[in-house]
Amino acid sequence: MLTVANLSKQFGEQSVLRDVSFSLEQGEVLAVLGRSGCGKTTLLKILAGLEMPTAGTLLLHGQDLRPVPPNERQMVYLYQEPLLFPHLTVFENVAFGLRIRNVAKAEINQQVQELLAELDLWEHAQKAPHQLSGGQRQRVSFGRALIIRPRLLLLDEPFGNLDAQTRADMQQLFLRVSRQHQITSLFVTHDSREALTVGTRFAYLDQGQLTSFASVGEFVQDARTAIRSELAFWENIQQKLE
């Protein structure tokens, strides 16, 4: 579905991405782990059309994305901040993408009702964004993205501002919904546990260079992910409890 080959990006003399290559099939979630400043957000912005690559190719279903404007790429970019329309209800925020596509009113009502129920938001349908919790606002943002059936979902540490329990709940919600709707996603994070939770494929981005892993085992064993040291920490705690 998505093929990225030899993608590079420079800002002046600074090289941010260097020969990044990977591919994604329909329904796969590529979890890209990396520290702050490694180029994760730049990669997402290039895919979304918000930045132009210095070199490389981007193909989505065989289509060259480089000349395609952002609003025609049929992608959705989700940030840590939900960026909801404050003057619209939850229902209207989710329905917005369908309304601007002139979908029939009855079809909009049906689709939005079904999605809000799926996201456990139906009882909040007539509330304004300021009346919601952080997790609820992020669910509304997620629903607004899903309703238009994007070809690719780009997630830039979307749950980073949530408390630990709400973040875990959102990860499970993302897993359930993405599997049900076969959503193809690129999910960037600096949290190894989150990467392991949401990903079906795994990669590590370090100083602009992307390493893809053939298996979860290879991802865990790579010292840069720090997963082995975290496992050792919890094993040590377990020994103390025993």
Automatic annotation (TrEMBL):
Residues 2-232 form the ABC transporter domain. The keyword GTP-binding does not apply. The keyword Nucleus does not apply. Keywords: ATP-binding, Cell membrane, Ion transport, Iron, Iron transport, Membrane, Nucleotide-binding, Transport. Signal peptide: none annotated. InterPro entries: AAA+_ATPase (IPR003593), ABC_SmlMolc_Importer (IPR050093), ABC_transporter-like_ATP-bd (IPR003439), ABC_transporter-like_CS (IPR017871), ABC_transpr_FbpC (IPR015853), P-loop_NTPase (IPR027417). GO terms for molecular function: ATP binding. This is ABC transporter ATP-binding protein.
